[in-house]
Every structure is written in structure tokens, then in C-alpha cells.
Amino acid sequence: MIRLYQLERCPWCAAARQGLANVGAEYETVEVPRERSERSDVIELSGQPLVPVIVDGDTVVWDSRRIVRYLYETYAGAERTRSVNELPDDVGGVRRLGVA
Predict the structure, then answer these.
(1) What pLDDT score does 68 carry?
(2) Whole-angstrom Cα distance, residue 57 to residue 44?
(3) Which residues, 6+ apart, have CB-to-CB distance to 43 below 8 Å?
(4) Distance (Å, rounded) from C-alpha 89 to C-alpha 31?
């Protein structure tokens, strides 16, 4: 199951939740502290304190646009190809857990 690190009232987190809904992915949310310096889990996973961040198996993705692109590429198939091509791939990041 995908884990979404978020703030409920964050518009970028809402975009990530919409992307998850668009592909029908099951996910759980982890509400992070409002204070960025207190987001130790997010920093450990992504190397930065901003949300949203998703963890999908051993894949960590951050930045709402990168998250939606990842979800569409991974779960949506051909019906989201146009949307994938409209989303940037040079924002946020992706890393594999256990890989430096």
C-alpha cells in the first residue's frame, strides 16, 4: 500500500491525493508536523522537509507534479499518456530505499 506523507490542508498534498484517486490506488496518509524541522521521517526518506512525499514499496517520490507523473506512469496505463507527457520530470525526485 502507498503511504502519503502530507498536511491535510496543503494544496500540493491535495494534488497528490487527487492523483492517487485518479489511478484508484489504495493509500494511507501520515500527517506530518507543520514545522518543517520536525519532519524527521520525511527528511530521512527524501532528503528534504517538504510534502507531499509518497512511499510505494521501495520507491520514494516527492513533489506533487513528480508524484502524479509517477502514479500515472506506474498505475494508469495508456489512458493517462497525454497527462504524463504534460507533467515535468525535472522537479522533485525519486529514489529507491536501500540505495545510496
Answers:
(1) 96
(2) 16
(3) 49
(4) 26
Does residue 52 have a cis bond before it (omega within 30 degrees)? yes
For residue 6, the cross-strand partners are 31
Location of C-alpha cell 497528490: 16
d(CA 72, CA 18): 11
Q: What is the largest CA-CA distance in the chain?
A: 40
| DSSP 8-state code for residue 33 | P
pLDDT value of position 3: 98
Q: What are phi and psi of 54, to 5 degrees?
A: -115, 150
pLDDT of residue 27: 98
Instruction: Kindly report, residue by residue over 17-68, the tens digit of the pLDDT.
Output: 999 999 999 999 999 999 999 999 999 999 999 999 999 999 999 999 999 9
